[in-house]
Automatic annotation (TrEMBL):
InterPro entries: DUF1415
Name of this chain's protein: Peptidase
Region described as Disordered: spans on this chain: 178-199
Pfam families associated with the record: DUF1415
Length: 199
């Protein structure tokens, strides 16, 4: 599950430059991959609360961002969207609004006003339902370094339309190695992987 997520991150998010901010934290190994065993929304939200608290308390130099991977829960996109409402409410209840935020990725992601098969939806499609926990301070620094951040979404949509669904799948079917030589198709050391995943 971590290997599949790493492949998506390095091949799509970084490889297609869908998020110009992602490469730095990946190269610095500042991403926490947390695999949830939850099988329903309640369990997923409990794991989310734990990961939000953990990220808030962590040293940003060690863990800058967290990918909470939900392979057994919120598989229905409508239920996932319902969970996002409660996730945002949780941020407020934990008094973390303004410190952390949650970005959303899902295998069936669909932007409002699009059809399920529209290629632009693939900018937010991931191998599993994922809640991406980010630090506001890191986002602020990233936006300062990338002054045209508001154009990212439009650029990504244009790229996806140019690639097409078949082109995107062909791209994703190939292995990826980042500039530091880390291959995303295997996680070195199963024990290390379990430790980083919080399993």
């Amino acid at each position: 599950m971590i290997a599949a997520t790493r492949h998506w991150l390095t091949r799509a998010v970084i490889g297609l430059n869908l998020c110009p901010f992602a490469k730095a934290v990946h190269v610095k190994d500042q991403i926490r991959y947390a695999v949830s065993a939850a099988s329903d929304m309640e369990g997923a939200l409990l794991d989310l609360e734990r990961e939000l608290r953990r990220l808030a308390e962590a040293d940003p130099q060690a863990v800058d961002t967290t990918l909470l991977i939900l392979p057994h829960a919120l598989l229905d996109f409508h239920e996932y969207n319902d969970a996002l409402f409660f996730a945002e409410r949780m941020l407020k209840q934990l008094h973390l609004e303004g410190e952390l935020q949650i970005a959303s990725f899902h295998p069936e992601y669909q932007f409002e006003g699009t059809a399920p098969d529209d290629v632009e939806n693939y900018t937010n499609r991931s191998p599993y339902p994922i809640l991406h926990l980010l630090r506001e301070s890191s986002l602020d620094r990233a936006v300062e370094a990338f002054p045209e951040a508001e154009t990212i979404f439009e650029r990504n949509e244009a790229l996806m339309r140019k690639m097409g669904v078949a082109g995107y799948h062909a791209w994703m079917a190939q292995p990826a190695a980042d500039d530091e030589g880390a291959n995303d198709n295997a996680v070195d050391g199963a024990d290390e992987a379990r430790g980083r995943a919080g399993e």
